[in-house]
Amino acid sequence: MGGNWSIGGNLTANGTLRPGNSIGIMTVGGDVTFGADSVYEVEIAGNGTSDRIDASGKATLNGGRVDVYALDDKISYQDGQTYTILTADGGVSGAFSEAVSKSVFLTTSLGYQANQVDLTVGLVTEPVDPGTPPVVFEKVAQTSNQKSTARALDSLEQSGSSLELYNSILFLASEDEARNAFNQLSGDTHASVKTGLIDTANLTADAINNRLRTAFAGVAAKDTPVLSFAQSPKGSAPQPFEAVAPSTYDFGVWASGFGSWVDHDGNSNAGGLKSTTGGFLSGVDVGFASGWRLGIVGGYSQTDLDAKGRFASATSDNWHLGVYGGNQWGPIGLRAGLVQTWHNIDSSRSVAYTGFSDSLDADYDARTFQAFGELGYRIDTAVASFEPFANLSHIRLRTDGFTEKAVPQHCLLTAKRPIRPSRHLVCVHRLPFSWVRRMQI
To answer: Among 369, 291, 367, which residue's Cα sits nearest to residue 325?
Structure first.
């Protein structure tokens, strides 16, 4: 039974009683009685108003439950409120069995006076120093990302759009729902994007190392299309059987495509990541009589990223420019390079939890600098060739600050901050079940 009612006689409730449509008052001209199985649903607002039953006779409470609903997301509940939910001119006898809040973050208690029943609602908080915002959300967070997000939510101002976001979490009914909301709001997708960009940097280094191994006929080197160039003296034409002067250097122009499909598992703290990258590099290099080969390289790639469990994705356009070089001293090979990459990133994610949903977009730039080196030792056998090698790569990634474009209350501002990961790899290049044949003409 619900609505704004005026009843001239007595009222006995053994089911659910819901005064008002939103906040409202039910007037009873006689006695009101609540049975043991009754449910009294009370809506409250932060300005001190609530649903109420006013009885001209007496109120008899034989148990029953009071279910409390917080209503107004634009009013702060942080200081707590006391509401009168029942008055009876003829007096109040008995008690309700309990008051239950539909919010895991609100605590409720009932107070009984001679002619009224009061409901007190406050925040479930941890003790803090005076002047410090109460700790409401952090106490249910479990992972480090959730705790960081919860601390930020606890510190939100109790006004405007910040209060609306605060209350959207405050009204959640369970700790699991709150933790899901923390995950959605955390923005950890942007950290996952950086993981994808680092993977892309590794691809460019691998492509350049492959070109150098090809140039020196390295083990298991992939075929890379190469155009050679040699210049004849002006005004001269080659003659049959003319002696050929030894060349002190030679040019090579090459191009190579690359790509990857990577699936990073998530954990309790951060979601997983799927990334797909495709692109190409093109370079020109020159070999010297000393054995060194030096070159420059440029290219483009695109990385598509999908954050698992976060309803988020991003696309990065990547432009690469670098220098590289290498040499081969018998079985010993050295390959190294420097690559700078400029990224333009478009990201989109959805924030969705109980009672709230929105979309967030961001467009920002990033830069990756990579220095890498590889040292290998070739071993030839009768049936196969091997090259054990050691590879060291240092990557520096810096993203610009950005603001996600959406409803202002949960825009995420990320400051400029460099990331300096190092990748160390020791393994073996191997060409299995093949034979290396040398031929001299």
So the answer is: 291
Cα torsion 40, 45, 48, 50: sign: negative
Phi-psi region of 78 (alpha: psi -120 to 50; beta: other; left: phi over 0): alpha
pLDDT in tens, 280-306: 999 999 999 889 999 999 999 999 999
Count of Cβ atoms closer than 10 Å to residue 78 Cβ:
17
Q: Domain ranges for the chain, please list them.
A: 2-123, 138-184, 187-233+243-430
Q: Which CATH class is domain 187-233+243-430?
A: mainly beta
What span, in angstroms and rounded, lies between the C-alpha atoms of 374 and 335? Answer: 5
With beta carbons less than 8 A apart as the criterion, state whether 418 and 397 touch: yes
Where b means 16+ CB within 10 Å and e means fewer, 13-47 reads beeebbbbeebbbbbbeebbbbeeebbbbbbbbbe
Which pLDDT score, from 0 to 100, does residue 34 have?
A: 96
For residue 89, is pLDDT > 50? yes
Cα separations (Å) of 327 from 63, 98, 210, 214, 431? 89, 81, 13, 12, 21
pLDDT tens digit sequence for 347-379 = 998 888 888 888 888 899 999 999 999 999 999
Those residues with Cβ within 8 angstroms of residue 369's Cβ, 6 or more apart along the chain or in another chain: 338, 339, 340, 341, 395, 396
Alpha carbon distance, N-terminus to C-terminus of the chain: 102
